[in-house]
Amino acid sequence: MRDKNIERFDAGGIRRFFLSVLKAANVREDVAALVTEGLVSTSLRGVDSHGIRLFPHYINGVEGGRINRNPQYRFEQTAPATGRFDADHTFGHAAGIEAMNRAMALSKDAGAGLVAVYNSSHNGAMAYFALEAAKGDFIGLAFTHADSLVNSPGSMRAFFGTNPICMAVPCEGEEPFCFDSAPSPVTWNRVRQHREEKKDMPDGYTADASGNETTDPGKAAQLFPIGGYKGFGLAMIVDILCGLLTGMTGGRDNSNMFMDTISQKRMLGQFYMAIRIDSFQPLDIFKKRMKQLMDDIRNEPRRDADVAVMVPGDPEKKACVDRSKNGIPIKEHDLQAFKLVADRYKVKFIK
């Protein structure tokens, strides 16, 4: 349902605004294009916590020295299907697309491509990268580790981050299937949104600094994992891929996105995979079967006639249709932050 009190802006105007700011900030053109698309496409899909609202924070990272404006990427192929990618501390969005492109290239010969990224930064929503592979008729998987924010079951404090798992799969006749989820009920950026809007968190989502449940976003210091130890185990799997395999830090040693000084490099790792479908099944048959699988789920008997049975990613597809037509909603707090950036760089605001 649309909120009439929130102003909406055309995605094209937001793209132009971001590109103008990034150009004024001397961010290299190819990097600027990829981070802009990563943020706008994420907000178009309705994932506001990882979308355009983070742009002012990234600009602060550029100004403070955390994010490299002009990275010198280095790729090392380590085996027929594997490689290591040095992001040189640039925007994680740009490095991630470059790495996924490498993974797809590897998979054309080897059947699958796996690329470990190191010296990276926050890379937003993982769907951006997995969907890039799916649009090229690969199965795409994307992982990143993050700040230590997920409570360890039985412990007073967090150990692993909100380490997401994402998979995107092409199908016939519609946008790819995409599952993108942290091992916690919400992301930390959602907690920050609740703080800004002075809204309580739902029960069972957040804990204070002692590990006790709280619904007060101001007291929230960590997130509970989904399914207790099961969600914690998923976070650990991702940290093994993104921390240990990449050679970066992991667990409680990871840097903090908002609390650390803005000059401090994030030193994050990411892991990307592309699987060539026709190495296993004829592509056209697979895509038809994928479409059938999704439709079979949607056609399951409804418990409530007014509530649809959905496949993961369906709400994002619906949001994208709406926002592509009617614009991306921007809340007042974020609108003011954008205007401050526009004034600082003397560029025209969203038009």
Draw up the topology in text.
Elements: E1 7-9, H1 11-24, H2 29-44, H3 55-64, E2 74-79, E3 82-86, H4 92-110, E4 112-120, H5 127-134, E5 138-144, E6 150-151, E7 158-160, E8 165-169, E9 177-181, H6 188-197, E10 206-207, E11 213-214, E12 222-223, H7 229-244, E13 268-276, H8 283-298, H9 314-326, E14 328-330, H10 332-345
Parallel strand pairs: 3-4
Antiparallel strand pairs: 1-14, 2-3, 4-13, 5-8, 5-13, 6-7, 8-9, 10-11, 10-12
Helix pairs in contact: 1-2, 2-4, 4-5
Order of helices and strands: EHHHEEHEHEEEEEHEEEHEHHEH
Tally the beta strands. Answer: 14
Write out the strand line-up for the largest beta sheet, numbering strands in chain order.
2-3-4-13-5-8-9
Give me the CATH fold name: Ribosomal Protein S8, Chain: A, domain 1
Q: Could you give me the name of the CATH homologous superfamily?
A: Malate/L-lactate/L-sulpholactate dehydrogenase, NADPH binding domain
Helix content: 25-40%
Q: Could you report the average pLDDT, rounded to the nearest whole number?
A: 96
Number of domains in the coordinates? Answer: 1
Quickly give the CATH architecture: 2-Layer Sandwich
Please identify the structural class as seen in this structure.
alpha+beta
* Envelope shape: globular
CATH class: Alpha Beta
User: What's the total helix number?
Assistant: 10
Stretches where pLDDT falls below 50 for ≥5 residues? none
Q: Major sheet: size, sense and barrel closure?
A: 7 strands, mixed
Beta-strand portion reads: 15-25%
The radius of gyration over CA amounts to 20 Å
What is the first-to-last residue Cα distance? 24 Å
